[in-house]
Amino acid sequence: DTVATKDGIVNTSDVEQFEEDFEEYLRKHGVYVRGQSTSQKISESVMESNLLKKLKKSTKLRKYLSIDTRDFDNQYTLHCGIPDIVPLDEDTRKITNCVFELKKSGKESLWKASVQGMSYALEAEVETVLLVSLFEPSEFPSDLRKKLDIISQKLLKAGIVLNFRYEQYQYLMKL
Predict the structure, then answer these.
(1) Which residue intervals of the chain are DSSP H helices?
(2) What does pTM read for this prediction?
(3) Average pLDDT for residues 84-109, to the nearest whole number?
(4) d(CA 160, CA 61)
(5) Selection from 136, 139, 82 nearest residue 109 by Cα
């Protein structure tokens, strides 16, 4: 009924359902990528694809991350899920070194990435979770770092080594 402003639109459950369905449709067709106004418009799947290509090609990047293999996968299925990127032993095809968990946004999503990465690393029996974020913070958030350090220390007492490393996506892509 109103064309000049949105003030008269009533947000019924039908409107909310339409908006959710429409966003999903746009996402599936690569049109809609949620982001902050100051951020680059890039999806996590594009980040993953770009980083995967860079890892396979860049000796400098692999050396920086202490990864010896040139074999990587982004569809490696574990019981608890699918890590974003994993380096693989070329002979056994098992995960080596670490698991990568990428997040587009910053601090809040790093909590989820930490738990995901921890479960992937523990199941794959690797020692490092590499958290990669597109945006701020430029350094590992101290409150998250403290909590992950406690988890690592308690696991170490049980004979399990688990380290967390944080990197910014932009920095890795420049290497």
Answers:
(1) 13-28, 44-57, 59-64, 107-124, 142-157, 169-174
(2) 0.76
(3) 91
(4) 27
(5) 136
